[in-house]
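Postdoc handover notes: sequence design on the structure in folder B. Input tokens:
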């Protein structure tokens, strides 16, 4: 189930709690924001959308396709407001906002990302609805009705796997997000078994990594560390590099900017 409607200055989406439909909701909302004359990178918007919707789908509704997630996006005078609600029982958001996952943890970063990348984060009392506000340069103008068929995340592909100075070099094409994490985890397990000496992931064709993807990279780092190897992230775009450094992961990964 995926329902979408527009209204002056905004849009609403209701969808069944599955990761593929989460991807579609992100794509359609980004299309709407871009249609409001937003300027510059929409990295922060995409990241906030993904994390808020991940919390609703995975933690709130437990990925139950019989339950629904509601998303409302409103654009007004340079400010984007996102409201995300699920049908779960809620959670203790106060405790979650007060803590930050240590660098070696493979989960627990979603709420931290929301507080760092949104200008304001407000939960309802139960903890099953959140309102995020974010300043977006240039955001104004009449609503442009979103069209279906945005740039939806597909199954991640590997352009090539090669050996370079005794290390495997992997080049994924597509964002490293929750919907592709299981397939990528299986592929990385194969690569590490064949090449335990180290791993380079070339992110030239990766725009964004969500909290699930970050957890996957940390798990790879932990596995390599036990074997004396190290994870290197190559061709990391500036927005993504800033996210990883904010999460203090540059203490573990070697992060290399595009050459």
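Designed sequence:
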């Amino acid at each position: 189930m995926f329902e979408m409607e527009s209204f002056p200055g905004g849009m609403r989406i209701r969808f069944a709690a599955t990761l593929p439909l989460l991807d579609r909701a992100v794509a359609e909302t980004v299309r709407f924001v871009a249609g409001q004359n937003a300027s510059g990178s929409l990295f922060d918007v995409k990241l906030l959308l993904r994390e808020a919707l991940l919390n609703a789908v995975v933690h709130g509704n437990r990925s139950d396709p019989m339950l629904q997630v509601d998303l409302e996006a409103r654009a007004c005078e340079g400010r984007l407001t996102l409201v995300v609600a699920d049908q779960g029982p809620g959670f203790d958001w106060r405790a979650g906002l007060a803590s930050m996952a240590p660098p070696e943890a493979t989960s627990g970063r979603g709420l931290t990302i929301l507080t760092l990348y949104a200008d304001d984060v407000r939960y309802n009392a139960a903890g099953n609805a959140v309102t995020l506000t974010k300043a977006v340069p240039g955001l104004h103008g009449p609503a442009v009705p979103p069209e279906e068929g945005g740039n939806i995340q597909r199954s991640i592909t590997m352009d090539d796997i090669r050996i370079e100075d005794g290390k495997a070099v992997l080049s994924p094409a597509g964002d490293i997000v929750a919907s592709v994490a299981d397939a990528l985890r299986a592929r990385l397990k194969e690569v590490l078994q064949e090449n335990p000496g180290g791993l380079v992931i070339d992110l030239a064709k990766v725009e964004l990594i969500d909290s699930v993807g970050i957890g996957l990279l940390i798990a790879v780092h932990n596995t390599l560390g036990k074997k004396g190897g190290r994870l290197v992230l190559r061709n990391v775009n500036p927005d993504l590099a800033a996210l990883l450094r904010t999460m203090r992961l540059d203490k573990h990964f070697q992060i290399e900017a595009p050459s």
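Context for whoever picks this up: The radius of gyration is 19 Å. Don't rerun without checking with the PI first.
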